[in-house]
Design goal:
By secondary structure, the chain is an alpha/beta fold. Helix content is about 40%, strand content about 15%. The protein has two domains: about 120 residues, Aspartate Aminotransferase, domain 1, CATH 3.90.1150.10; about 240 residues, Aspartate Aminotransferase, domain 2 (3-Layer(aba) Sandwich). Strand 13 and strand 14 form a beta hairpin. The two termini are about 35 Å apart. Bound molecules: pyridoxal-5'-phosphate.
């Protein structure tokens, strides 16, 4: 008997999801939920409460939106800032670039603090900009998906608190996996995703807004049509949504939250991802690969950036891993982004795969290397 080849996604965007999420996908069509009907409110309530509980974010209001993580970025920039707020964008990777680009499109006054991809941001400079009253808000990524490391969020959050600067945090690749004390950090708003760490589909996203900021937002005119966080929150608090929202996506995300709770919550998922890190990183080193590291920047739990070895290219490696099955598995790795793409490639270990799949991957990688 020959079973189908398992296509293991080693990407951070689309990967195998928990069985309860797949069960929704299989059965939803038989009993669709009318998005304005009485069955929407309990679903919306469950999901918003579940997100708050899973993340220990009691002081925050989750707002759900159709879209991917970038949608949450646009919603937060366009709803949480006034048009005159001077925004410090701390960027050291592709997603910091995205925040800067979205903020520019909105005409936001920008203070651009750019460092090379992956490098630790200049905390002294951040402190100086905040203490001298040159900025009203700071935006930073926590999980730096383009370099697979973590920004010093505790340090930057402490600076933001000290000078009462609004901290807008991109937690898209970190929430539900990297333990985070949002209340302690005092982030004003957090951009999230229902895909990455939550393990649902990439078509539903959310932002968390601290309650005092949400109250102020009654008087901040929203600037991104259809992604007005305050108006959307008002509707969602009553169990509705200002536009059509896909109830199947809500059911899938609710199932993903239920599954996360059942396995032991964020702490348990973090441990599971750490076991994958240990297995894979030890394996990379045995194979003579070099893990990309930057001083003062701990590695992220969701994946690893590796130097492309000599005598091969990303395309060649990716092609071999995706086309030559080993023990019934093929693997899709990920190129690095932008400025790093000629030098590094990335292997993420997200989603619902047993450790054994990563052991097979290490053997496949050994065979694919020159
Ligand atoms: C994935 C990701 C995003 C959003 O990207 P999408 O293309 O919208 O999924 C934003 N920030 C970070 C840090 C991410 O990892």
């Amino acid at each position: 008997m020959s079973s189908a080849v398992v296509r293991v996604s080693l990407t951070p965007a689309v990967f195998h999801l928990p069985e309860p999420v797949n069960a929704v996908s299989r059965s939803y069509g038989q009993q669709p939920i009318v998005p304005r009907g009485p069955r929407l409110k309990p679903l919306m309530d469950d999901l918003r409460d579940g997100i708050r509980r899973a993340l220990g974010a009691e002081g925050y209001e989750p707002v759900l939106m159709t879209g991917s993580g970038s949608t949450a970025v646009a919603a937060v920039l366009g709803s949480c800032l006034t048009p005159t707020d001077r925004l410090l964008v701390v960027r050291n990777g592709a997603y910091g670039d995205r925040i800067a680009s979205f903020a520019k499109q909105l005409g936001q006054p920008l203070v651009d603090l750019e460092s090379p991809y992956g490098e630790r941001p200049d905390l002294g400079r951040i402190e100086q900009l905040c203490s001298s009253g040159q900025v009203d808000a700071v935006a930073m990524i926590y999980g730096c998906t383009s370099s697979c490391n973590l920004n010093p969020i505790a340090e930057v959050a402490a600076i933001a608190r000290r000078y009462q600067v609004k901290l807008l945090l991109d937690g898209i690749s970190a929430l539900f996996i990297e333990p985070m004390d949002l209340e302690g950090l005092g982030a004003a708003a957090v951009m999230g995703s229902c895909n990455k760490g939550l393990h649902s589909h990439p078509n539903l996203t959310f932002a968390l807004v601290r309650r005092d900021l949400m109250d102020q937002m009654e008087h901040i005119a929203p600037r991104v049509p259809s992604l007005e966080l305050y108006q959307t929150w008002l509707k969602q608090s009553g169990g509705g949504h200002p536009y059509t929202i896909d109830p199947m996506s809500l059911c899938q995300a609710r199932a993903a939250l239920g599954y996360l709770e059942a396995i032991g919550g964020v702490a348990a998922r973090h441990r599971l991802y750490q076991r994958r890190c240990e297995l894979l990183r030890a394996g990379y080193e045995r194979l003579g690969l070099t893990i990309a590291r930057w001083e003062g920047m701990p590695l992220q739990s969701i994946g690893t950036a590796l130097h492309i070895p000599e005598r091969t290219s990303y395309d060649e490696l990716a092609d071999r891993l995706a086309s030559d099955p080993l023990d019934g598995h093929v693997f899709e790795i990920y190129a690095a982004q932008g400025k790093l793409s000629g030098k590094l490639f990335r292997v993420f270990h997200m989603g619902e795969y047993p450790l054994e799949a990563y052991e097979i991957f290490l053997r496949a990688l050994a065979m694919a290397l020159p």
